[in-house]
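Hey, I was hoping to borrow your eyes for a little while. I've dropped the whole record in just underneath, so have a look:

——
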Amino acid sequence: MFYFLAVARVTADPASLFVHGHYWLLILAILTLAFAVLLRSRVIFGIQVVFLAAVFTIFITGEEAQGGPVPVLLYGILLSLQLLLSLYTAYSMKKLLDESYYRVMRKIHKLP
């Protein structure tokens, strides 16, 4: 038994916590947060933080309230939304890197 954010007592065993059951969602969220910081995008960072907080809240309170795992359909929807946000962030990162490369090439007179 331990405390989640020192407010609510969580009685789930550690093997069934969020990180163990939904690690793909967590990995994508951490990568998206890192790319949002590198892109200096407040919008993407804000969306990702709100999404991650909502996912943690849904999964932790859902497992406590229902006594079982969160439904597969809800997990699929959340994973697809996270995947779309991660793909958009990765595309923005690639676009930024290409633009930076072309600026350097123009500066050293390798491109017209």
